Amino acid sequence: MKGLEDRQLVALIAGVLGLLVVSSAAGAVLSRRVRSDAARATVANLNARIRAWWAMVAVFTAAVWIGPTGSIVLFALISFLALREFVTLAPTRREDHGTLFWSFFLITPLQYVLIGARWYGLFSIMIPVYAFAFVAVSNVLAGGTERFLERTATIHWGLMVCVYCVSYAPALLVLEIPGFGSRNTRLLVFLVLVVELSDVFQYTCGKLWGRRPIAPSISPNKTWEGFVGGILAASAVGTAIWWATPFSVWEAGLMSLAITLAGFAGGLILSAIKRDRGVKDYGSFIQGHGGMLDRIDSLCFAAPIFFHLTRYFFTP
Amino acid sequence: MIAAAVSALARLVAGPTVVYRSGPPDARQRIYFGNHTSHLDFVVLWSALPAPARKRARPVAARDYWEKGGIRRFLASRVFRAVLIDRPSQEGAPAAGQGRVAAARQAIDMLVAAMSGGDSLIVFPEGTRGSGETVAPFRSGLYHLCLASPGVEALPVYLDNMNRILPKGESLPVPMLSRVIFGDPLAPAPGEAKGAFLERARGAVMALGGP
Asked: What interface predicted TM-score (ipTM) does this complex get?
């Protein structure tokens, strides 16, 4: 019950719910007005996405409501599901089996336990240092040198993206910012809100005005119009909710810009992997959105950068 | 309850996407047959069935494996109501000739008896787990089972990626996404030879795994 005693936090969540109500209403109006088959498919997908957003907001709010443990468990599950999708697409071999098992059932939970224990010194290096060594040693002991570097690097990359990077989101809860007290839940909400709104606004602006593709060989749906519109709109919202953060107005604006740019890069990078493996989505876990990794691709890259910017500039 | 827990666990590990080529199977009695690469195969196939069909589906499994150890025996007999049969090729079973034929006939009789109560069966006609690269030739049990139960559809199922999740020789699973694809029912045509039917059934399973 700790999370929602904070009235500004309640205001943020109420704002999100308001946005969802408006989106659902707009989706209902659109579905009555479209005529062509192509437009109907787009609107059906849009409405599936909005319905999934209701569920995602409900789960996230519940986790935040429970307190830090709730958020840590939620993000641990997200990491597990994301890594499961990543490994499915990764060209691993039989010899990697043991390494993969320990990646899922030892390294992933351990990373989140370290965050729960507030052990910054270890959680910030466990995967880059110890898991890095572990994956290589475990693979070499399993024998088999075929594509050794590729396999080893792939598994470590999976752990970095799906576990290490994602875990920086709940790690925001254990940052000690002078004068901000124990209101860190707001930082987590700020990050997730700006990242996800940036995705939503990029999608919306792209659908409305998208003309010039930004990286046609990687993701044909990403356009310059969507990019500029989405980044600006999400940064504007991030700036407007500066009152919920330890930042001043312009600091909140710059943080939002950093979050949205890192998020955009994350989306492109994870799209490049999908393109290389010849698939459109990582999975089908979230209706209308694709897999877990499709939903959190931007968060993966935005979370560690936001964490370290905040830590560098706002903690002693 | 335990069955629900085991199937939830299997879904967490194997995250199956389920595809029904000709609609979700109803509760009618059927013989589900699929490719076999992992100990998780039947749990995943079983959990992919719609609830009414799942209630009546019993896996056919090797006695030598599932009667080893208390947990396996409990799961096989109480949770999944498995029909346990002797594998003719297994050590201890009669090795060749008349004995082998008799053992196979006995297995078929057991399966037919299990089906006489109206239950469906889940069988893996390759007889043993493969590496996942190809589907091995089918043993003749599927043919005899179909002949002995006229009017019961045989439904091909392809299980994709299970060989990476829990391959032969490993005891611990790695979570990955899998696919379970149910195809169109088939049955031996009048006068169709054993070999031709088995090859057609195998082809139906392999076709589901194609792009």
From this structure: 0.85
